[in-house]
Amino acid sequence: MTKPTPPFSALAQLRADIDRIDAEMHRLLMERGEIIDRLVAVKQTSESGSAFRPAREADMMRRLVARHHGRLPLDTVESIWRVIIATFTWVQAPYTVHADLSAGEAVMRDVVRFHFGFTVPFVTHVGAAGALAAVAASKGDLALVPAASLSGNGAWWTALEAAGAPKIIARLPFVERADHPAGLPTFVVARPALDAVANEVTTVSVRVAGWGPQVASAIAPLADTIAAPDRALDGAMLLVSLPPERALDDVLVAMRQAGASVRNTALVGGHASRYTVARDGAQPVPVGR
Ligand SMILES: O=C(O)C(=O)C[C@]1(C(=O)O)C=C[C@@H](O)C=C1
């Protein structure tokens, strides 16, 4: 009969396995770091000033979630990769995250730390306007603004209407689920590099007169909308997020049929479709918006 292995040597073996895996993960991360100089040269990052590529990141996050299984919680895996990618972006071209605290300091701080870690500089702003102005004055900085109607913020997206203005380039979290640890819906605003844009969902600024609950419910099935009152026109300024299959005209026609008149529209950005996964990390489901 074989003698049972003493527990301490079983533990020593397991720790040796962990050390081997840790050393390999660290080596691979350092190897990932070695391609930074080539990435900067190929992407000509010094000209555009920004290495951020949201379409590529959304694709990477979807594949990460799709292949993930096992004991490690999805929250942990997602956060590790977010920090790796955000830090690699920063190493290619330093940037600062300007976060609007209008939805509360704690929730926004969680969004920033979960998605960008602790190496990327983080500056807080009381209101969207300050965060957007900081990005407009920079080359490659990001603004994080809650994707919600917050009375103090007004129609912040109108600052993105001009051709040369920064635009919405992403929506966080990349992977949505109930009880996401940093789940505050958040728009990311930046000066987009031309090859960087993800346009599955387009975001449009719309000014309407005659806005009311009837018009809001007429367009609710068609697109996600954030509204801010526009007293001058007895109407509203809207930020409309159009899912891939939805034409802006569908939404404008529905608004007119419900009694509103549309004053003007302007494209203010685009982002990848939202992905929703079940809490247990089941396969991701694209929700279109
Ligand atoms: O693929 C790129 O363009 C990269 O710069 C690499 C990388 C990454 O670290 O994976 C970093 C920044 C981009 O936003 C996307 C991905």
UniProtKB/TrEMBL annotation:
Q: What GO terms are given for molecular function?
A: chorismate mutase activity
In terms of SUPFAM superfamilies, this protein maps to: Chorismate mutase II
Q: Report the EC code(s) recorded for this entry.
A: 5.4.99.5
Name a Pfam family for this protein.
Answer: CM_2
Query: What are the recorded Gene Ontology BP terms?
Result: chorismate metabolic process
Domain of life according to the entry: Bacteria
The top EC class, named as a word, is isomerase
- Per UniProt, residues of the Chorismate mutase domain are 5-96
Q: Which PROSITE patterns match?
A: CHORISMATE_MUT_2
What stretches pass through the bilayer? none
What's this protein's name?
Answer: chorismate mutase
**Originating organism:** Blastochloris viridis
